[in-house]
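Field notebook, page 344. I keep forgetting to write these up properly, so this time I am using the form the group agreed on. The chain and the ligand, iron/sulfur cluster, are recorded exactly as supplied. Prediction of the bound pose follows.
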Amino acid sequence: MSAAPAVQVSDELRTPLVDRHGRVHRDLRISLTDVCNLRCTYCMPAEGVPWLARENILTTDELLRVAGVAAALGIVEVRLTGGEPLLRADAVDVVAGMASIEGEDGPLEVSMTTNALRLPQLAGPLRDAGLARLNISLDTLRRDVFAALTRRDRLDDTLEGIDAAIAAGFAPIKLNAVAMRGVNDDELTDLLRFAVERGLELRFIEQMPLDAGHIWSRPQMVTGEEILEALQQEFTLTELPGRGAAPAERFLVDGGPSTVGVIRSVTRPFCGACDRVRLTADGQLRNCLFSRTESDLLGVLRSGGTDDDVARLMHACIAGKLPGHGIDEPGFLQPDRPMSAIGG
Ligand code: SAM
Ligand code: SF4
């Protein structure tokens, strides 16, 4: 098993990752791989995307080194994502290594976003390795819709993965659902009932322009407003205060204790409170999901760069962060990489 290496960052660089707009970055999202066992229409085309060159995928030691430097710069939470993070052969090792890194508030809090297909085998080992929280993607409870949406007939495997996560003792478990017109917008209340019955926290996400096929269109998108209206047909929702940097607006369902979240990235962006920075599986640092530029951390790591060089690049990347994603601005351009290659 990989142990996190001790990092050596000079005192003058051991400062928080603050951008020009005063936002302090504490959350690092790391894509463990760009490959996936599903082909969700809002993310990948049917034939997949040209995969990243395998030799450029960061090794576990490199990932742990970057996380160690990030922790020295005030990162306290690491979310592992992808592609499908559990397709990385050493995903459990990565979790164990990350969870052993000391941040300023104690060990890094390590969480993961997954499609659950490999959880029946891995939920227990992940929990033992120190994974703190799980977010599982589930957009539909109908087998035919799942097969059309993900282009794979694997709803039963996903549901089995959710059961395995519950059995392994993960709590809270969040479910992520992207609402899509004419696809699953008639089962939003069914999804919420499913979550409430199992003690899971469902979060609906507005679809973002991050699909490889560039099929996103604003009028087609189901808005957070529409999602809330649909849910209120069946449930009483009471807004919870104190959102902080969290992207989800949260509501008590029928007086609680269950809650539901809505992530209105498009219609009500939360860029002003954003505390996230992203690392792609091939070692590119991005200061925004929608960023059009990347900082080449892989180059620094593989050309003998020191921990100070890594820290400097992180500071420079954050310093250049724009105030917002600009989806609603006339000149908006979708990033070149699809969500699967950025890491959601
Ligand atoms: N494969 C894992 C999964 O699906 O959970 C992790 C990676 S996936 C890119 C992370 C999250 O991004 C998923 O919850 C997925 O639903 C979401 N996502 C992907 N494309 C999206 C889009 N265009 N708009 C909004 N959310 C998207
Ligand atoms: Fe795979 Fe996740 Fe993208 Fe679906 S959303 S294709 S599961 S990476």
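OBSERVATIONS:
- The chain has one domain: 13-342.
- Residues 60-72 form the longest helix (13 residues).
FOLLOW-UP: compare against the apo run.
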